[in-house]
């Protein structure tokens, strides 16, 4: 499981995204890659589909 650490927070370009990313990580919506978040990389179609599926599953 990935954690949003201070080093991950420093890598985000936008400070407004920190709270949203903390929520997404805490709710297992975003898992990162190899235990790390890399907000400057693009997400693949499969990664976005997995994120959307996890989000939709929350409401069930």
TrEMBL record:
Supply the InterPro entries for this chain.
SLH_dom
Tell me which residues make up the SLH domain: 4-60
For the keyword Repeat, the answer is yes
Q: Which Pfam families match?
A: SLH (PF00395)
Keywords for this protein: Repeat
Protein's name in the database: S-layer homology domain-containing protein
Which organism is the protein's source?
Agathobaculum butyriciproducens
């Amino acid at each position: 499981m990935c954690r949003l650490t201070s080093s991950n927070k420093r890598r985000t370009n936008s400070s407004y995204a920190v709270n949203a990313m903390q929520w997404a990580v805490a709710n297992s919506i975003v898992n990162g890659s190899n235990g790390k978040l890399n907000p400057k990389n693009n997400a693949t179609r499969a990664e976005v589909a997995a994120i959307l599926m996890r989000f939709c599953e929350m409401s069930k």
